[in-house]
């Protein structure tokens, strides 16, 4: 087991990464030091892993909320249902929310924990590659609004993250690929050596090679933890973690959050960001080609849905990174050199959108 | 105008208290440095004061949400409606929520500001005495759940509070009295000299004497700001501000949040806390009598509804101050000497509940 710490003063917490962690009762018991536990999971994950968790916590009062599986349930209405369960069971401020699932479960359960009684403890047990390398780290919790993703949420840190790489064996290939997109993102933001490593090890990752997976997850969490440690509430640098996301969100929103997985949309978003960066940030054409090639190696899509540039632009304008009416974009000077900018020619954005989304 | 600061490092903010502040355009303009402003008010307050606010902000984009008046609208459903307005108007992270109203408006608007896009700025313009001395200060935002008050919320500080004492002239007498209960509370917690001052100046306060009001509001905010500055997230000392509230919440909940004003319930709660303190905290009987006398001077009720001790105890157990299944109470050793305790004989609590709520 490897442990790394997200350094946030009194909100610091450990991320534990290793094989078979869910089978280690003492580890779970120590991570969850509460009497009353709300276990939030979904109909796909709960049958696989909830029994192990409950068995480890047999001496506690564990109440389960099993949500339907899917991004469309990451809503304020679902959060309200979870609040109802907490209240109905008279859970107090010393209760703990244990999120067992992917990003949807983690984001929603974290938001509920952030708001219930103005904040109770929560622990993340991410069960998808994407949530292991991204959403379980850094304390961004949220639910979606019909008008846009993650529009209602809170910055709220978990007290611990338990990442068991064994659970990836039951993950559908498409979900694995979606997680790889976020891993590729970290290389593109600030670690070109990691990007090169990924170019050489993508096949091993897709074959679930344990050593390769542990390294990729650890390095991804490390990059994210460092950035979050310097800028928890996204006043500046943390926005770099949204590389590819502004475009990706447009894809997800335009297709109703059901057709594309988040990571798949981010993958295409990374490529669109690279193309825009070639236009305005001086990113070499060769780097753009390497991004496209690595996405393909990961089995990811590289073509956006042809929703039209105008519709895509509409979704950009509700993005959370809008400042004074202007969309700030994460761009790159080259692989591993991301920066945030609201200062780019509109024409370049329009061209990029037309190229990617159609006229 | 007097200004005091709530000291919370990068979340510090000023509370401005004075006569006629809403008529000073430059003051409002400086307090609200955003282009996009969501003005949240209610059907009672908006006709009286929204025109002045909008006139001062004529160069901004001001969108109004006017809620029905009443505690029953401080709900997640109402918050959802306000989120809808923010999204429909494509308000970004740089938008600002301006709460113009009493505690219901301020708590709800603050909660929406805390959650929208994971937190946007908000400014409080409290228009009741109660919100001026209590809910507008300290960053406790929340909505109610049918199972209990303020069960869903966030600690989230405003960027400024503008307290215009002139607005109290239009406040119904019952609302004024409700605010006086919270003012009395501050004396009981930690300032016996202020309690004595109140014994001598209650008539002036009820007659809306401007000098007396300004002094009472300033001193109340000062006490609250000092405590909040030392314990923002209620890890310890801040819980003292809940003196009377655990019992008061039981009264409100048992009567459906409509029959009793919050401050009225807190007033009776203060007396019940004093009686419990006489039993277990060594509070002199004479101090208990002075509390009852001062509440009467303020025109407040002193008798709890006869809902029965068992029902009252049920409401206590869902209170946010429950720790490990035990209700922690704010008690007093005497006037101005409050302390927090989970360590008291259950029989004393039962006796106190029977005495106050009936068998």
What does this structure look like?
The structure is a homodimer of 359-residue chains. Chain A is α/β, with parallel strands linked by helices. The first copy, chain A, folds into two domains: 2-170, Rossmann fold (3-Layer(aba) Sandwich), CATH 3.40.50; 173-357, Dehydroquinate synthase-like, alpha domain (Up-down Bundle). Chain A has helices at residues 25-31, 46-56, 76-88, 103-115, 129-135, 173-190, 192-206, 210-230, 245-254, 262-280, 285-297, 309-316, 346-357, and strands at 2-6, 13-18, 36-42, 61-67, 96-101, 121-126, 140-145, 148-155, 160-164, 322-323, 326-327, 329-332, 338-341. In chain A, the strands form four sheets. In chain A, strands 1-2-9-6-5-3-4 form a seven-stranded mixed β-sheet, with helices on both faces. Chain A has a two-stranded antiparallel ribbon with strand order 7-8. In chain A, strand 10 and strand 11 (326-327) form a beta hairpin. Chain A is globular, with a radius of gyration of 20 Å. Chain A starts with a strand and ends with a helix. The mean pLDDT of chain A is 94. At the A-B interface, helix 3, strand 7, strand 8 and strand 10 of A face helix 3, strand 7, strand 8 and strand 10 of B.
Question: What is the element layout, followed by pairings?
Answer:
The structure is a homodimer of 359-residue chains.
Chain A: E1 2-6, E2 13-18, H1 25-31, E3 36-42, H2 46-56, E4 61-67, H3 76-88, E5 96-101, H4 103-115, E6 121-126, H5 129-135, E7 140-145, E8 148-155, E9 160-164, H6 173-190, H7 192-206, H8 210-230, H9 245-254, H10 262-280, H11 285-297, H12 309-316, E10 322-323, E11 326-327, E12 329-332, E13 338-341, H13 346-357
Parallel strand pairs in A: 2-9, 3-4, 3-5, 5-6, 6-9
Antiparallel strand pairs in A: 1-2, 7-8, 10-11, 12-13
């Amino acid at each position: 087991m490897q442990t790394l710490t997200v350094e946030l003063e009194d909100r610091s917490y450990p991320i534990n990464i290793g094989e078979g962690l869910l089978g280690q009762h003492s580890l779970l018991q120590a991570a969850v030091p509460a009497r009353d536990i709300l276990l939030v999971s979904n109909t796909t994950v709960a049958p696989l892993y909830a029994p192990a968790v409950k068995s480890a916590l047999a001496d506690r009062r564990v109440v389960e909320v099993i949500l339907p599986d899917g991004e469309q349930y990451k809503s304020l209405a679902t959060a309200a249902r979870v609040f109802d369960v907490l209240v109905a069971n008279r859970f107090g401020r010393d209760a703990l929310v244990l999120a067992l699932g992917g990003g949807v479960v983690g984001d929603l359960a974290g938001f509920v924990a952030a708001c219930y009684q103005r904040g109770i403890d929560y622990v993340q047990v991410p069960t998808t590659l994407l949530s292991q390398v991204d959403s379980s780290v850094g304390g961004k919790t949220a639910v979606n609004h019909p008008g846009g993703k993650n529009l209602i949420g809170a910055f709220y840190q978990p007290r611990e993250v338990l990442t068991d790489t064994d659970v990836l064996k039951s993950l559908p290939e498409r979900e694995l690929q979606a997680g790889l997109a976020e891993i590729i993102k970290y290389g593109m933001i600030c670690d070109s050596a990691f990007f090169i490593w990924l170019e050489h090890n993508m096949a091993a990752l897709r074959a679930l090679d344990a050593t390769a997976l542990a390294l990729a997850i650890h390095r991804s969490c490390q990059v994210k933890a460092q950035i979050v440690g310097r800028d928890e509430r996204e006043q500046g640098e943390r926005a770099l973690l949204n590389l590819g996301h502004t475009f990706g969100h447009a894809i997800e929103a335009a297709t109703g959050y059901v057709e594309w997985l988040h990571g798949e949309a981010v993958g295409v978003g990374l490529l669109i960001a690279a193309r825009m960066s070639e236009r305005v940030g001086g990113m070499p054409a060769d780097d753009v080609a390497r991004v496209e090639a690595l996405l393909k190696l990961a089995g990811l899509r590289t073509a956006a849905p042809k929703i039209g540039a105008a519709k895509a632009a509409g979704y950009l304008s509700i993005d959370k990174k809008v400042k004074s009416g202007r969309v700030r974009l994460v761009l790159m000077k080259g692989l591993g050199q991301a920066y945030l900018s609201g200062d780019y020619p509109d024409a370049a954005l329009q061209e990029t959108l037309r190229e990617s989304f159609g006229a």
